[in-house]
Every structure is written in C-alpha cells, then in structure tokens.
Amino acid sequence: MSVSAPRFPQLAPQEPVCQRSGLRIPQRPLPNPPLPVAELLAILICGLLLVTI
After folding, report:
1. Which backbone phi and psi does 5 adopt, to 5 degrees?
2. Helix (H, G, I), strand (E, B) or coil at 29
3. Higher pLDDT, 3 or 40
4. Number of domains in the chain
5. Rounded Cα–Cα distance for residues 41 and 47 (Å)
6. Rounded to an integer, what distance in angstroms lies between the CA atom of residue 44 and that of residue 42?
7. In this predicted model, what pLDDT tens digit does every residue of 2-27 receive, in sequence order?
C-alpha cells in the first residue's frame, strides 16, 4: 500500500506536466502546419476540379 500511495501523487503531477508540455509543443507546430496544409488541400481540390472539368 505504501507503494501505491506515492504513485497516485506522482501520476497527478505527471499528467498536468505532460499536458502543459504537450500543449506548449503542439501550439507552435500546429498553427504553422495547418496554414500550409489547408492551402495545399485547397490547391489539390481546385486542381482536381479543374482536371475533372
């Protein structure tokens, strides 16, 4: 039981830490790729429409 007691407090702080680090990391790359990805998707869709027409 003594082992399980420290595990719970460790898991609690680890979860927020992972979320904070995870949020910080994706926030930088996410805003950058979505812009080019959306543009690429729009270009591909337009290209496909032009090709099909």
Report:
1. -60, -50
2. coil
3. 40
4. 1
5. 10
6. 5
7. 554 555 555 454 555 545 555 555 55
**Cα–Cα distance for residue pair 53/32, rounded to 1 Å:** 32
Which residues form the domain of 27? 4-52
How many Å apart are CA 14 and CA 7, to the nearest integer? 10
- Return the percentage of the chain with pLDDT > 90, whole number: 8
- The three-point CA angle 11-13-15 to 5° equals 65
Global model pTM greater than 0.70:
no
How many CA atoms lie within 13 Å of 7's alpha carbon, on the beta-carbon side? 4
